[in-house]
Amino acid sequence: MVRVSVVGAHGRMGGNVVKAVEGAKDMELSVTVDAGDGLDAITPENTDVAVDFTVPSATLDNVLSLVSHGVSVVVGTTGWTDDKLDQVREAVGKHPGTSVFIAPNFAISAVLADYFSTIAAKYFESAEVIEMHHPNKVDAPSGTAIHTAKGIAEARREAGLGSIPDDTKSDGGSRGQLVDGVHVHAVRLRGLNAHEEVLFGNAGEQLVIRADSFDRSSFMPGVLLAVRKLSSGKYQGLTVGLNNFLDL
Amino acid sequence: MVRVSVVGAHGRMGGNVVKAVEGAKDMELSVTVDAGDGLDAITPENTDVAVDFTVPSATLDNVLSLVSHGVSVVVGTTGWTDDKLDQVREAVGKHPGTSVFIAPNFAISAVLADYFSTIAAKYFESAEVIEMHHPNKVDAPSGTAIHTAKGIAEARREAGLGSIPDDTKSDGGSRGQLVDGVHVHAVRLRGLNAHEEVLFGNAGEQLVIRADSFDRSSFMPGVLLAVRKLSSGKYQGLTVGLNNFLDL
Amino acid sequence: MVRVSVVGAHGRMGGNVVKAVEGAKDMELSVTVDAGDGLDAITPENTDVAVDFTVPSATLDNVLSLVSHGVSVVVGTTGWTDDKLDQVREAVGKHPGTSVFIAPNFAISAVLADYFSTIAAKYFESAEVIEMHHPNKVDAPSGTAIHTAKGIAEARREAGLGSIPDDTKSDGGSRGQLVDGVHVHAVRLRGLNAHEEVLFGNAGEQLVIRADSFDRSSFMPGVLLAVRKLSSGKYQGLTVGLNNFLDL
Amino acid sequence: MVRVSVVGAHGRMGGNVVKAVEGAKDMELSVTVDAGDGLDAITPENTDVAVDFTVPSATLDNVLSLVSHGVSVVVGTTGWTDDKLDQVREAVGKHPGTSVFIAPNFAISAVLADYFSTIAAKYFESAEVIEMHHPNKVDAPSGTAIHTAKGIAEARREAGLGSIPDDTKSDGGSRGQLVDGVHVHAVRLRGLNAHEEVLFGNAGEQLVIRADSFDRSSFMPGVLLAVRKLSSGKYQGLTVGLNNFLDL
User: Fold this and answer.
1) Which of B45, C159, D38, D238 is deepest in the core (most CB within 10 A)?
2) Where would I find the Dihydrodipicolinate reductase N-terminal domain in this sequence (chains A, B, C, D) (predicted)?
């Protein structure tokens, strides 16, 4: 049995993680803490892997603290910068036996859409990204859409493709945001949750890859997969991105 | 038999009209002219309805000339302003028996999508418009998308709906162009022709209306319908929009 | 304040209705009953409108009992036949002042998709229906898809359209079920809830109308609308279909 | 310059190949033949690669004849069985220096959709295939859809996934055709050409992969790619499937 502790257990995502761990036959829920609780209750003696779904302002300190106590961590909180990731890498390096996994998106459909896009990008003249979310999201475009656009741009460069054809002379903003040469559009619509559609086009043909995350339950298989991977002891240091844990 | 003359017969759309008229059992092709030809060959004696698919800089003069000679006209050329439409209205008023029909879009799917959007708009909290075209189109968003967005905005006002919910704080341009309070996005992709998707959302539900025009043949049923309507003599003056000729 | 009682209050839909009524500013929750409780507690003295979300085997008796006691009813339970509807009509006719509303689908997106399909059907050579649901649904295709297909077929007949073109010689069942000459396909997929997509095609163009009901919350605006309509006293007798309460 | 001869040059696909070869800077058109012409004009002296787009009843003889004369062949004609493929393999084996490439689908979007489906299939509880074509197609479902469904089924078996969940008790044919345990649906709609949509679902999420082939021009990049690959001399014997020529 993998013993799992949850940081941010009273949050919406954390609460889903608690339920998912309780429902997993190969896991048992150990300690749950939330804002103000302190992390001292989570130790290597009672925890194989901690899961952090808190807030961008707290997650770095949480991870550094847990790692310094010898606990591996799966992180679903967003807001990571290169500098912060470096701090985690350094901390994990000092504590052999610990490992940290950070993913911007735990939905398998989204991770696959992102991965497939990097492959398809090489074979198409045109590519654009449309992400769609509920209207309470404060940032646009989504981090996932930016990641997808950058992956497409990199694949195009490697394949020697030039810039994407576009004769638009005036657009009033309708052509969206250019991310590394790829147009990205963000839709906000009541009823939606988190969705991404990637369009590729050649003369006479189109390829569309779409990932729909209808609710938070879609992230749980990815979280549990990450917990199992870290608890296996096969992964050392810092791993970023669920694609590393899929057999791609 | 309805006798049809075509202005701009050598253009891509005009060429399609020539073929469509030749293929229609109730029509016969009369005169075809193109840039530089002059319009004198088209007279009430040989033409029931003329069809103009030329360029924005020529179409107003074409229509005024044809009407002054007593010939009714179906116009598919774009670029019409309120002022130009007024000139046509005035000219038609002076020549009883003539009528003019101008449509920004002859595809029945697009006309219905536009019409359905004005109905649906009253019942949903959110609405956005995405139009998709080939990358050689120079303007964005399409005139059809702007028309749809304005129709949605007007229907929302009449229904007493407030502004569309959107908590976005920063978007880098990804949220597209605001047309009368409705976000409009324009995609340009090789392989596509002319497409529009309208999204409506309430808590827990979404309605999507999508019109695809895969090639120019999609406009011909609408053109022939307009020719038949004008030749029937039932329509006087200037009519704008194919929706007026559908039984909606 | 409209006083609302709920029959089947412990069921999943009934529970949602209880919450929706409690959340509506112009309504107050009166009596809630469930299987085994009997309906005597619901009277005209404490209830303006009762809402029944029970099971097909119970709903007719519930409605007849409530009406006989002078209570109007909004019914979301499925399984209604013409014969059962006639019994309700007769009962309501004997108890002036009562009215009954029965809807096969309370999602506004689904009702509009169905309505738009009857309009579009007249203008397209081809039409097909695809419904998509979660894999625990036991019947296929959905009642909504059958209703949509029949509406399309009727509109085509009225418009004098012949049969839908189809040169298929062998299909191994892949062409789906013919409902009144319209092909209907049913998809069952984990993660989906209740969705319908209607495709219309002419040479060179396509119109797609899609309704997505992501969860039960999508039905509540329709239920509350029906409650308000019945409580207004403007509707007499039996009304079937939410389209009657929309301004279409 | 790669010298290309075309068999079936007057057919619709063959005519497109002729144009595509003429438009390719690294190719020159050599001999074109059609039904009744015989193949003797095509020799290793004037042809590096022949392209066959004829009919199922003629293509095997064409390929065997060309190979026996020492000419490599790219084949786009359908109707190949295991037995026929074996005959080609045997013939190519007897004529060193020749190679044959046969593809059921030359559209890159379709080939990628098929390939991505085999990867995604391992990670989802549910999967279904919907193919959509013009109504003049006589067989259903398409060979591509069958291939995709079989690939999904095989990937699920390898991943140890059980059968796809489906509680349907009665469906009147709406659930489509079972291909190796995967439901396949075929839509026929005027205005469409050749399209495939593959749906994958887990609790709370969906992945959709869609390939649209709007017209025959979509096949030409794949045909030219195959011609280049065979002319490179790197491929020996019989190769089946464009995926072998993509860098996947």
Assistant:
1) D238
2) 2-106
